[in-house]
Amino acid sequence: MAQRVQSVQEFLQDSFVPLVAALCSEEAERVTRKNNLGFCELVKPFCRLTSEVHMRDPNNQLHIIKNLKIAVNNIVTQSPQPGAIRKLLNDVVTISQPAEGLVANVITAGDYDLNISDRSVKASVPWYSSWKDTLMGLNTSTFYSATTPWFEAYRESFLQSMPASDHEFLNHYVACMLVVSSSEPEPVEQFLKLSQEQHRIQHSNEYSYPKWFIPNTLKYYVLLHDVSVGEEQRADSIYEEMKQRYGTQGCYLLKINSRGSNRGADEQIPDPWSQYLQKSSIQVQESYEDGPCTVISNKNTDHFIPLDGLGNDSKDGLSNNFKTHPLQLDHTSDSGCFDGTDYLKSNASLHESKKSNTGTPHGMCLTLTDHDRIRQFIQEFTFRGLLPHIEKTIRQLNDQLISRKGLSRSLFSATKKWFSGSKVPEKSINELKSTSGLLYPPEAPELQIRKMADLCFLVQHYELAYSCYHTAKKDFLNDQAMLYAAGALEMAAVSAFLQPGAPRPYPAHYMDTAIQTYRDICKNMMLAERCVLLSAEILKSQCKYSEAAALLIRLTTEQSAWMGMDSDLRSALLLEQAAHCFINMKSPMVRKFAFHMILAGHRYSKAGQKKHALRCYCQAMQVYKGKGWSLAEDHINFTIGRQSFTLRQLENAVSAFRHILINDSKQTAAQQGAFLREYLYVYRNVSQLSPDGPLPQLPLPYINSSATRVFFGHDRRPAEGEKQAATHISLDQEYDSEFSQQWKELEEQVVASANKSTVLSNFQPTQYCLNRYSDNSRFPLGVVEEPITVEVAFRNPLKVPLLLTDLSLLWKFQPKDFSSNNNGETKELMTCGKDMIGAEVISEFLINSEETKMARLKLFPHQTGELHILGVVYNLGTIQGTTVLDGIDSSVGLQAGKYIPNGTSVRGRQDLEIQGPRLNNTKEEKTSIKYGPDRRLDPIITEEMPLLEVFFINFPTGLLCGEIRKTYVEFMNVSKCPLTGLKVVSKRPECFTFGGSSTILTPLSPSTSEHCSAYKTVVKHSTSVCSLMSSASSVDFGAGTGNQTEVIDVPFPDSVLLPGASVQLPMWIRGPDEEGVHEIHFLFYYESIKKHSKMCHRVLRHTAVICTSRSLTVRATAYRSNALEDEKGEGDNMLVFVDVENINTSEAGVKEFHIVQVSSNSKNWKLQESINLSEDKDIKLANREKGKLCLKAVRCKNVLDNYTFADIIFGNEQIISSTSPCADFFFRSLPSEFKRTHTQHSLHTSQGTAKQSLDNAVRLIQNCSEVDLNIIVLWKAYVIEDNKQLILEGQHHVMLHTVGKEAFSFPQKQGFKKILGNSDWEDLEQESPEMVLFNFFRPESTSAPARPSPDHLSNLIKTSLHYPETFNHSFHQKSLCVVPVTLLLSNCSQADVDVIIDLRHKTTSPEMLENHGSFTWLGQTQYKLQLKSLEVSSLQLKACFVHTGVYNLGTPRVFAKLSDQVTLFETSQQNSMPALIIINSI
User: Fold this and answer.
1) Mean pLDDT lowest for which of 385-399, 862-876, 1155-1169, 1336-1350?
2) Rounded-to-integer distance, Cα 969 and Cα 426, Å
3) Contact 583/570 with Cβ under 8 angstroms?
4) How many CB atoms lie within 10 A of CB 182?
5) Model pTM?
6) d(Cα 993, Cα 72) in Å, to the nearest integer?
């Protein structure tokens, strides 16, 4: 805001000063030009009096004049043209700019400076609370006064350049100086010529300009003497002659140039002219074009056209097709486009002119004494000439007015009566007719009053001036001379304000009426503007900022055509002042300030003042930024960008346009498209300035650096028919932390197996795909000649599509040799970048509106070394919005990849900067914010490694539970290095096998095995159901060894796969026992024959998905046979009952299941035969049918480490169960059992030594009831599919551990319940109540010794009674019947057992007597004997009967204990079958 050093009173006084004309001879001008000054310029710095002046008013009262200033001007006989005035004012504003470097043109976020003062006041977000205090301080502080020097210069030039008018006399000349040099031949005659010339100019009709105050103008004769060259005596004599002719009051001798033009270098004379000449120099400069503004002025047109630097010309590439905004720039101008070279030239010439003006010395021939002489001359002229003349004129006017109006006393004394009487109501402006054209004659009394008032005002007699103005105002209003009345109102208001002591308040309504009259009736905007400027300063001095702002804004709302184009500059300046008023209020209105600064900037732009427009927008931006007013921000940034571009501040233009694009814009698509095109155009101009410089950073599209993924390796091959490539890892797969941990564990397992079961301390899992979730703390490894794919996540925040062309990665590479001899040494290579790293270039990459799209860019390393991926480089452009390609809709064209660019694109880059994870391990890291490294973009390229590809042929996706399917796997080495040590590891080894040594007997290719069985079979000609035995070792199938069963060696013929070679191997798949979808993870591990320092091995992943459906469930139970020996005398035997149920649903299309074979597998037992109750050997099970098999098992005679396989066949073909794949899947299902047994053993050994012997005894007793018999049920299923019958094969396993306990083929109770359903499961629980969870051990906290269960005790000693079932005896002949009975005792344990047989009857209840009768054992009632391990002993007993009947002989009680134990355990025989004998009488 314009806040001058002087007060408002001084400003108003200086706005209206007495005007003195100067008429100089040519010789006098030559004398002053020695100082590079004209005469008027010479005296200008000394035109303000430094002492008080006294004069008397018409009442002869003494009046004091303080700080009086006069203006001395050359006589100009032509009225200033409006165009020239506009040119002058425009240049004044243009040349007055704020100090450079005070504040940046584009304000960034965060702390910012609101440039409202010379010392920018610091503020920060949030802004309002702090701004309120800050601006309140501004309001009361004089130190932080906001200045707008361009407005002050404009206001001063405007007031000085106002042409003289007939309705007022303030700009009329009061006196005239006639200046003649003393060096002229006849100075007196020259004075006479100049006097005649002045008289002719004033009184002849040839000249209507300038205007003169009174006909008898004061003439003051000045003799100018050049001291350095002239004769002082001659000058004094001429001056004496002048005093005689003109009087001592009317002439003056002024001596100047006391020294020569060669000034001493050591003497510094002040230059008081520079500050005045800088303001006026633009009036004499040659016309120049200031780029954004060109003023056209000629004789016929008095208007100028502001040229917008971004016009509608097509060649500048800027589009204006955005919607009109209330603050939008006016682009209707038909001007030409901006040329940067012209601007630079004109700007340079302007600076040269400034330098010439400021660099040219003034007053070179003047000394300080000469300065005092000039100052004294002005004082003498004022004291002795001007003021007496004005005093005399005021008296004459006063006398004339009194005489003409017939008044008895002076006007001065009469004013009291006029103002004390009743007031005549004034008519409103609307009631007055337009009589602005009314003219008074020069001698009219009304004009004489106005003339007297103006003279009084000029000499600071404001009270008398106010009286005259008030009187004239009434007369003019009565005559309806509105122009005269408005002038009187204006000056009356100013006079009232300037009266000392403020006897009356400032009549602001006078000014309002004057402004309205000037504007609406008189159509004179210059006078209205003067009123506004004066009144606004008065209101601001009274702290009436709101009224001042409203007054300033009123004059900016007029847009009528008659006002001309100059209204833009005036409106801009007044709006800016109004904005400053808003922040100087008691409660600062910051948002109103910003809004009116925007309006001011808009009008500055229309007026061609681009720098001022840019400054206004930048100041307003500080308030709008970051407050959520996105549309306003966009408009401001867009305008800042345009203005900066016009002023060739290209960096600022780019920054402003960048802000529009990177913020979440709420603009329409068309508006955003316009913004983007502007940005591209500006950016292209910036890049053209330095074509060889570094690539600029582009703001679009957004890049989510943390989402960047890096993939090492080739893309996965697509499936070809029945040939499916391993899934491995690809960028199409989503990251799963659980799966990632599983793969890591598998790799760690296989690496430990390859390193002889030792886990490496520095083991790091292989990472093929790096993302935000992976461990990126170490440098990843890439392989020479294998591509590196970088997936970059682009996001387009705009509603218009972005087209990226020639998109590629930006990288840096340092070659190094990682071989064993030169580990890590840098190689000096004379090759270019393409020979080291090949980069894939995407020619076109389209990102639709508000779309997030991934771009996959590849690098192909050709040498070893360290690679650093820096970012992406591309051409940023857009496509035409509505494009039709050969009659096809544009959307079709986009999908086809034929994009039509709009012709503007820029090349730039964006860096990929990824922040690592926050560190949170140590205390220091927890208390501070530190981030670890993220090296996913810094891979190390190692030497060549083998590369394996795996293909699965005819791999099934759907199986029945337990189904066996044969498939083939092809292994191919696609690298140039041989690979070896191929292994596969999986968490589900029970689901697949590559076979054992018998694999060579199977077909070698998929085509030859189409109709073959998955098993090795032998045709059986016999119809017997006896078992066929074979044996196998678990070592042959990967079980029973110390190695981890999950790691399987792939049986290569030569254990090496040469480069380019491939091999096909059969693989059998077994459907998991649980119904549902199963994922089976295969991890293939392989090594290079050559050892590498960086990479030791490689892995390949594959995930197979198999969906299984229900098939069969198998339940089996083993029971001890009552016979101690079978018919063949083969020793101990058991009965095995196998229940098979078809639980398949009809959806699977299975017609029926056939049980083709039941095999056993054990080290101690074998199936001997099937006990069939029916003659039909074929066992068929339809849907929901059950089948029951009764099988006899006998103990193997020779206990070996090998497993004995026994096959009971129900068909014509025997499946050799001891070979692949039957034995493989059996042994793969054993690891969990081995672990359980090992766990139990470890728990036993960890018990205390005090209980060890007792626990060993318990264990031996428990072993008596355990069996190690495994049942394998092999089946075939007939399936109808596509009208064809298919035969499926499969097998189920049942592990029998305990005699009398039912075992299931399904591993978990919950899963079995899931298969059977709730109702069937309840039935099963009722049928098998003994199926409960069995705890083998007591908790360690209990002190009670473990005792074996009754079931275990009953199986320690097996007893059997041999006797005749029927015995005939003649009781008549002999009353006692003695029957011989043999008691067989069999030791079922592996230890010696002491046995006690007690023959005394324990049960004597009447029921027992009634049911079985009574008999007596003869002989000893108790026997003691010892049985060796597995020994069978017989004891001859005699039973005595006294009458016929049925008797139960199973009454002997057997007690047993281990020979080395004291504790006895009674064996319970209650569950044995009753030994009934029938005694008949003969």
Assistant:
1) 1336-1350
2) 112
3) no
4) 25
5) 0.69
6) 116
Give the mean pLDDT of 153-176. Answer: 90
User: Which structure tokens are listed for 656?
Assistant: 């402003």
Residue 818, exposed/middle/buried by CB under 10 A (0-12, 13-18, 19+)? buried
**Cβ(1430)–Cβ(1388) under 8 Å?**
yes
Highest mean pLDDT out of 300-309, 499-508, 557-566, 758-767: 499-508
H or E stretch including 90?
helix 82-95
Distance CA 42, CA 35 (A): 8
In angstroms, rounded to a whole number, what is the distance separating the alpha carbons of residues 1377 and 1396? 26
Total H helices, total E strands in the chain: 36, 57
Tokens representing residue 276 in the block: 């005045």
pLDDT in tens, 662-683: 777 788 888 888 888 888 888 8
Contacts of 18 (CB under 8 A, 6+ apart): 70, 71, 174, 175, 386, 390, 458, 459
For β-strands 173-181 and 218-226, DSSP reports them as parallel
Q: Helix axis angle, 525-541 relative to 545-554, nearest 10°?
A: 170
- How far apart CA 415 and CA 422 sit, in angstroms, is 13
Collapsed DSSP state (helix, strand, coil) of residue 1458 = strand
SS3 content of the chain, % helix, strand, coil (to 5): 35, 25, 40
Q: With contact defined as beta carbons under 8 Å apart, do 1193 and 1248 qualify?
A: no
Residues 6 or more apart from 1269 whose CB is under 8 A from it? 1118, 1134, 1136, 1160, 1161, 1162, 1164, 1165, 1193, 1296
Q: Looking at this protein, which amino acid is placed at residue 971?
A: F
Evaluate if residue 1379 carries a pLDDT over 90. yes
DSSP state of 60: -
DSSP state of 383: I
Cβ-in-10-Å burial (0-12, 13-18, 19+) of 1291 comes to: buried
What tokens appear for 1009 in the block? 């095995």
* Mean pLDDT taken over the chain: 77
Report how far residue 136's alpha carbon sits from residue 543's, in angstroms, rounded to the nearest whole number: 13
Structure tokens at 1118: 């083993």
Q: How far apart are CA 1119 and CA 312, in angstroms?
A: 104
Query: Could you tell me the two tokens for 866?
Result: 């360290």
Burial class (CB in 10 A: 0-12, 13-18, 19+), 1155: buried
Residues 616, 622, 624, 626, CA torsion sign? positive
